[in-house]
Design a protein that fits this description.
Layout: H1 4-18, E1 23-28, E2 34-35, E3 45-51, E4 54-59, E5 63-68, E6 74-76, E7 83-89, E8 92-97, E9 104-109, H2 117-120, H3 133-141, H4 147-152, H5 162-171, H6 185-204, E10 247-251, E11 254-258
Parallel strand pairs: 2-9
Antiparallel strand pairs: 1-7, 3-4, 4-5, 5-9, 6-8, 7-8, 10-11
Helix pairs in contact: 1-6, 3-6, 5-6
Length: about 260
């Protein structure tokens, strides 16, 4: 958390608020986590992009502010007890809220991601035209990893994390423990379509706000997709398809929720 839908929701909510505004000041007390952010001062926000779980603020003068929200990071229009950085823009203050302090912000020359190697190896955006069924099937066929681990490594599809990997695998009726290369073409196509479907629904509903309330939209409102979770966070509860108990296991060191009856 946050994953693609939460980061995309944040991008969409922030864009009309900050577009064209000049940065007047940046205040924080953690230069290790928020690097060269003072270089944004005096520059205008010309756009906000997203790659995977990263927000990319385009600044005038050829600079870019790269934001990774970590586990609990997010932007707020009002300060909170966990505000770690405040951006003062023309007519607006924007606060970076991050209880667990895993978020990172870095100002770079546009497109220069040498200090952020993950950005250079991200796979295609799963809701874009670049995310093709042919490429997805090839990626599955070439990987010996369990399906859940492959979905999380960001090279097959950028921005997918624990929540949406679990939900997509459930909709595709595939076990998270199966080796990716073992899937038939029909099974791979089911997963491809389930992944796009789950992510699109989650974006439309503003992402998922879990019980810890760590993710909220910039205006403080929660997401809505958590109401549609079939397996994630539902260990011991009945499967919405067969009624059997949802189980939790581990794949690649990550907690994984699944239905042992429905997911072969």
């Amino acid at each position: 958390m946050p994953e693609l839908p939460e980061v995309e929701t944040t991008r969409g909510r922030l864009l009309p608020l900050v577009l064209g505004r000049r940065v007047l000041a940046v205040r924080h007390q953690d230069p290790g986590r928020y690097r060269r952010v003072e270089e944004a001062v005096g520059r205008r926000v010309e756009g906000i992009g997203r790659r995977g779980k990263f927000l990319l603020f385009a600044l005038s003068g050829g600079l870019e502010m790269v934001v990774h929200l970590g586990m609990t990071g997010g932007f707020r229009l009002e300060p909170t007890p966990h505000t770690r950085l405040t951006w003062e823009l023309e007519g607006l203050r924007l606060h970076f809220h991050d209880p667990r302090r895993f978020g990172r912000i870095l100002v770079v020359r546009e497109g220069d991601y040498r200090e952020i190697p993950l950005l250079n190896r991200l796979g295609p955006e799963p809701l874009s035209e670049a995310f093709t069924l042919t490429g997805f099937l090839q990626g599955l066929a070439q990987s010996p990893k369990p399906l859940k681990a492959l979905l999380l490594d960001q090279t097959l599809a950028a921005g997918v994390g624990n929540i949406y990997a679990d939900e997509a695998l459930f909709r595709a009726r595939l076990s998270p423990f199966r080796r990716a290369s073992s899937l038939s073409a029909a099974e791979g196509e089911r997963l491809y379509r389930a992944l796009r479907e789950v992510l699109a629904e989650a974006v439309a509903l503003g992402g998922s706000t879990l019980s810890d309330q760590s993710y909220r939209q910039p205006d403080g409102l929660p997401g809505g997709f958590q109401e549609r979770h079939a397996v994630y966070g539902r260990e011991g509860l009945p499967c919405p398809a067969c009624g059997g108990p949802i189980r939790r296991g581990m794949v690649g060191g990550r907690s994984t929720h699944f239905c042992p009856r429905c997911q072969a």
